[in-house]
Amino acid sequence: MDFRRSTLVLIISFLFLDIFLFGLFWQMKKEVKTPLNTSINVMEQMRNDGITVTGVNMTVESLPIIQISPISIEAPVNALPSQVVSYDKGVISSQLIFPIQLTLDANTTATMENFAELTAYVESGAIVNGNQYTWFNYNPTTRKVIYAQRANQIPVMDGSSQIIFTLNANNQVISYEQTFAGNVEKLGNNRSLITSQKAIEVLYLAGRIPTRSTISVVRLSYYKSLALKDLSIYSPAWYVEFKQADGQMIVRRVDAIRGTVLTNEATETVNTGTTQ
Hints:
With about 280 residues, the protein is an alpha+beta fold.
C-alpha cells in the first residue's frame, strides 16, 4: 500500500515538474521570438538628453566597396578660364577674377537649390572634372561651400576628393581649393549597410554626441579605408553633422558596413572647418 502511494506521489510530482519545465520552455521561446527593442530605448535616452534627431530611419540600404585609381589634374590647370590658378601636390588653388554672386537667406537652412548658380559654374567646364562633383553642404560659420566627387552616385566625404569654395561677406564666391581622387570602379556585389538610425545610436553609445545637440545631416558617403600604391579602397560611411549646445558644428562618421566610429579624420576637419 505504501509502495503504491509512493508511486502515485512520484508520478504526480513528475507531472508537475513536466508542466513547470514546459511552461519555462514556452516562456523562453516567446522571449527569443520577441527580443527587447534596444534601439527604441536608445532613441528615448537621446531625447531625454536633449538631443534633437531628424531624418533618420530603419531602412536597410546597400552599396558596394569601390576602388579609385588616381589620375593627375595638373595638365588642364593652365586652361581654366578667368582664374589665377596654382597647382601643388595634387591640390588646385584658384582665385576667381569675376566673383560669383549667390543669393543666400541667413534665416533659412541652405540647400542645393540655393547654390544653383555655383553648380552651373562647376558643371560649365570652368572646373577640372566638374561634372563629377555634387553639392554637399554649406558651413555659414566658415563661409565654405563643399562639393564632393560622386562615386557610384555617392559623395566622397573624407577630404580626398572635393571642391571647397570660399565666400566673402557679400555672399560672393571668390576662391576655391580642389582635390580629385581619380577614376572609380566597383568591387564585387553590394553589401548591406547599417541603418541611419543605427549609426546615430552607435555614435551616442560611444559618447560622441554631447547632450543638447541638434543633428542636422545624416547622409551616406564614401571614405578611404585602404591606401595602396596604385589605387585606394573606399568604403561606405554614414556622415553625421550636428550642432553642439555652444553652437559649434561637429562632423562624425560611422563605417556603414562594420558599424564602427571612424577616427583620425583631421583632413576632413581642416577642409570643412568642423571639429571631430
